[in-house]
Amino acid sequence: MKGLLKLLELVLFCGLVIVLLCVISPIFERKESRIRFGGFVEDPAAYDVIFIGDSHTVNGIYPMELYEDYGIASYNLSGIGNTLPVSYWIMQLAMDRMTPKVVVLGVKDVDYVEKLTASSGDLHTSFDVFPLDRLKTQAILDLTDNPLAADDDGNLFSEMRPEYLFPFIKYHARWKELSPADFEPTTSVQKGGTMVVGLSEPRKYEITEDVGFENDGYGYAYLRKAIEYCQSRNIPIVLVNVPYPATYNDQVGEHYVKYIAEEYDVPFIDFVYMDYVVDYGTDMYDSFSHLNPSGARKVTDYLGKYLKEHYDLPDWRDKTDSGWGNLYREYVTYKLGHIKNHENDLPTILTLLHDKHLSLCMTISEDAVFYEDERNEQLLQNVVRRHLFEEDEGLEWSDGLWPLSGLDDSVWDGAAYSLIVDRKEDAFIENAENGEEIETSFGRVTFFEDGSISVNDQVYSGNPEAEVRLIIMDEFTGELVAKLSY
C-alpha cells in the first residue's frame, strides 16, 4: 500500500511539474514566435487562406491588404530562413488545426540542399508558438535528423532537439529580462506578414531561358510531399515564387518547380519571370531580394485578384461581427506610423505612398535638386502606377509605365510642378493653375506660386527654403497624416 501511495505521489508531482512548466514556459519564452503567429494558433478556423514560405513570402504578402481589398481572410505563416522541409511541417501543423480553402506555398530556394539553414533561432520563431504534441515532435525529430548539421555557432541541431521540444530549456534564464509585455504578449496586427520599409538599388540580373534542373537536396522532395498532402485532403495548393532579382543559378533551380507543378497539375505563379508585376528599381528593401511595401502591395494585389477569380472564397468585409474591421483600423494606425518614422527620408516616403488608400498634394519648385536624381522621378511616377495583371508585350516596369506626363516635362525643363492624387476618386491632377480651387474627395485644394498648398483654406507653406512640399491624407480614416517639406 505504501508503495502505491508513493507511486501516486510521484505521478501527482510529475503532473504538477508539467502543469507548472506549461503555465510558465510561455512567460519565459522569447516572444517573437507568439507575436507573429499567436493570432493564428488562438483561432485557426478563422482563416480561409494560409501563406507558407520563407522571408520573401513574409515581406511580400500582406494579409490585411487582402482583407481590405478583396475580403479574403488569410494568415501568413511564413518564417525567416524557412526551407521547404520547414514549410512542409508548418503546413502540417496548421492544417492539423484547420482546413484551409487554399494553401499558397512559397518555393524560393527550393534547391537548398539541407533541411535547415544555419540559424537556430529561425526554427524557434517558426515552432515555439505551437504546443508540444505528436505532430510537432515528429517535425522536430525529422528536421534535426542529420547528426552533422550545425548552426552558425557550431551547435549541432540534433543536440538542440530538447530545446525545440521544450523551449523552456532555452529560455529559463530570461527571468532577469522579463517585463510586463512577457505576461500579456500582443499579436501582430499584420496577420503574420511583415513590412520592411526602405529602398535599395537592385543587383544586376537577366532572365534566363526556360530551363530548370533538379538537384539531390531535400527541397524538391518536400515540395512533392506538400503537394501530395494537400491533394490527399482535396485542398487546393498554389505554388508561388515571390519576385526578386534572381541569379542564373537561382532561376535554374527554382524554375524546375514549373515541371513539378505540371506533373501534379497545380498552379505555379513565378513572379521572377513576370517582370511586369513589380519594378525592382522602386520595390526592393535590400539589393538582392526582399520587397518593400511598394513591391509587396503589387504582389499582394496580384494574388488577391488571382485567388478571388479561381477559388470560392467568402468576402469577410460583409460580416460585421467578424472582428476584421476593428483589426484593420489598428493595421492602418501601424501602417501610418511608418510615415512618421521616415518623414525625413523622401525616397522612402515615396515608396510608402504607393498605397491605394493614401491621397496627397505635392509641389516641386523650379530647378529643384529633386530633379537631379533620376530615381526620384521614377519613385514619384511609381506612386500612381496602376498594377498590371497581364503581360504587356514583355514590358518591364523599369523601362516604362510613366503615367505622370507633366512630371516628365517638368523634369526635362526644370520647371515647377504640382500634383494631386485623389485615391477615393482614383484620379490625379498635374500642374493645376496657381490660385485655382480644385474640388477633391478630401476638400478644396489650391496651389500658390511660392509652392504653398491650401487644403480647405488651411495653408501649408513648410520650410521657406524647401523645394518639395507634401501633404498626405489617409482615405480610410479621412485624417491628414503628415505635412512634410524637403
What would you say this structure looks like, in words?
The chain contains 19 helices and 14 strands. Helices cover 40% and strands 13% of the residues. With 486 residues, the protein is an alpha/beta fold. It has 2 domains: 301 residues, SGNH hydrolase (Rossmann fold, 3-Layer(aba) Sandwich), CATH 3.40.50; 143 residues, no CATH class. The strands form 3 sheets. Strands 2-1-3-4-5 form a 5-stranded parallel sheet, with helices on both faces. It is globular.
CATH architecture of the largest domain: 3-Layer(aba) Sandwich
Q: How many strands appear in the DSSP assignment?
A: 14
User: Span between N and C termini?
Assistant: 85 Å
| Order of strands, widest sheet | 2-1-3-4-5
Amount of helix? 25-40%
Give the helix/strand class. Answer: alpha/beta
What fold name goes in the CATH topology slot of the largest domain? Rossmann fold
CATH superfamily of the largest domain: SGNH hydrolase
Q: Taking all residues together, what is the mean pLDDT?
A: 89
Radius of gyration over C-alpha positions, nearest whole angstrom: 25 Å
List keywords for this structure.
alpha/beta, five-stranded antiparallel beta sheet, Rossmann fold, five-stranded parallel beta sheet
Structural topology:
Elements lengths: L1 H27 L3 H11 L6 E4 L2 H6 L2 H8 L3 E3 L7 H12 L6 E5 L13 H8 L6 H10 L17 H5 L2 H4 L8 H4 L34 H15 L4 E5 L6 H8 L1 H8 L3 E3 L9 H4 L9 H18 L13 H18 L4 H7 L5 E7 L9 H11 L20 H9 L3 E6 L4 E4 L7 E3 L2 E5 L5 E3 L2 E3 L7 E7 L5 E6 L1
Parallel strand pairs: 1-2, 1-3, 3-4, 4-5
Antiparallel strand pairs: 6-7, 6-13, 7-8, 9-10, 10-11, 11-12, 13-14
